[in-house]
Every structure is written in structure tokens, then in C-alpha cells.
């Protein structure tokens, strides 16, 4: 393989996805190049997280199997805990005008009285400014605290006190058919919208933009702008963070949310460290190549390629190079980055993993000592 001509471009996104993240409304404001842009249950327990924040957590699910006909009390309880998020980011795409400002919108859930807010990574990714609007209408500029693309979670912070944090529920106790209430900011301009449904499935494993996630499925209406908003149970306890829906086929009633039990440790790490540091990593960036997606002639084989190697990281120390195609990982044949990441999740930092790679048409075996995920 001619490495200079055939390696995939760095960070080129894979276009084919199994499911879509519920992306916010994106409005491009065109600017001339060089100009600046502007554009419960009654037994709630107080528990401490490793980040030092005291949160309310609800154990169990007392509404299992029940049908909720009137959600006005739930909406009144949970509404103040859900916020609107608007973002601006600078894009330097293919516009003839050069740089321009993109505006986006999503949702978030208040995690603590002093201003920590949970949302999705894809809501705030690349944002140069983040504005939070509370249910009261008050607006605050927000700072990014931490983000994790693998779980699609992020934490932001506003300078405010005496906020109304969500009461954390127990997503592990859910059953199919339990009531589910989504609150968010659909279309980026309908903040506080409440939709109802049920838990349609548990532990649904889907792939979203090369990331395999285990999510809750609900038929509560989910739309662009709901990203980062809350999914609540019949007692108004937070059980999930909305992040995806099936939208390519036009089928409705297929919404997904990140279970809150699995998210709490990630949220704590983001608050403490700004990133997830406990996860093993190759310290490389991967790209899935398919000849069916190529616009030109190429002698590249279909598969998962290394497009960037973090200097000094696990992959670099093992001798991995840009342009290597991963054939086997830990004894299993792989063809996508999602498969590599799924195997990685079964390991710990410091584990030695054998890889078979193809480099310029020659097969090599490399042993990698897994490192800490870089920021």
C-alpha cells in the first residue's frame, strides 16, 4: 500500500451509522473570513458522590407495571431540573465565505444545587460558547467541565446556587412497560416540553457513530433538541439521559437514553478530572474504511485503520503506525472500530493484548500494553 496516497484522512467521520444521535438544531451564520462572530418515592436518600457533590438518589421503582395517566405532578417536580442549552461554534468548512458560526441547541439536567449540569458530548462538542437557560427563564454562560465521547456524556457548570437538581433514580430496577417521561428542548425552541411513554426495552445495544452503547429504549417522543435532556420514571426520578433516536427510516417511537446508574461514575470522573482516566486505551484514532463509500479508486482493503497515534501512548510504544490496518485484536478478527472498542472494554489498564496488523501488505503481530485513556 502506498501509505502517502492511501491512508484515510485524519478524523474523517464514518457516514454510515446504525442510529442517529438526537442532534440539536444547527444554524450556520455565514461570516466573511477574518471577521469575528457573535452571533418521589418518600424515601429519598442523600448520598455523596466521589466528586464531593451530594445528590438525591431514589432506590427501587415503586411504579413498576403501572400506567401514568396524569403527569402534571411529575412535570412540576422535574421541570425545574431540565435546562435549555444553546451553543455557538466556529466552522471553517467548504463555505465560499470562509469561517462561519454554527448555532446549536440541546438540553441538560441539573446535577447539583451549585450549577453542575449533565448533557451529551455531541451537544457541546466543539462549542466556543455555551448558554444555559433555566426553566425560570434566567440565562447563564456555562463552562465546559469534562466530556467523554465514548459514552456521549458531558458536564458543564454555571455560576449559580440554589438550583433544583434532579432526584437520581435506579435504572437497574426498571422493567419493560414501566412509565417513562421525557423532558427537553425539542427543535431548540420548545424548552420544557414533556412527552410520555414506557420503557420499551432494557440493555439495548446499539452503535451510534462507531460507539457501541447499551441504552434504555422508550417510545416517548424524542426529537432534535431533546439531546441531553432527562428521562424520568413514574415518580419523577431521573433514570436516563436522552441521546439517540432512529430517524433514517421515518419510524417514530424509537428513542434511547443512557441509563443513569452507569452514567454516575462517568459523571464523577468528568467533574474530578475533566475526562475519563480509568478506561484502558490504545491511544490511537481509528477509521472504518469501506470501498463502497470511496469516491475514487483505491487499493485499500475494507477494515479498521489507525489514522493517528498519540505520541508516547500505548500504541506508539508498541510500534503502531498511521495507516496500519487492524486484522485481529486479542485473538478476534475485527473489521470496525466498534469491535475493537468492545474488546477494549473487557480489559484493564496494564493488560497486554496481542494484535495482528497489516502494514503495506505485510502481516505483523504486535503486543500492546494498554495505557490510560488520554484527555
From TrEMBL:
Residues 283-361 form the PDZ domain. SMART domains: PDZ. It comes from the Bacteria. Signal peptide: none annotated. Keywords: Hydrolase, Membrane, Protease, Transmembrane, Transmembrane helix. SUPFAM superfamilies: PDZ domain-like (SSF50156), Trypsin-like serine proteases (SSF50494). It holds the Pfam family Trypsin_2. The keyword RNA-binding does not apply. The keyword ATP-binding does not apply. InterPro entries: Chloro_Bact_Ser_Proteases (IPR051201), PDZ (IPR001478), PDZ_sf (IPR036034), Peptidase_S1_PA (IPR009003), Peptidase_S1_PA_chymotrypsin (IPR043504), Peptidase_S1C (IPR001940). The chain crosses the membrane at residues 24-44. Belongs to the peptidase S1C family. This is Trypsin-like peptidase domain-containing protein. It comes from Faecalicoccus acidiformans.
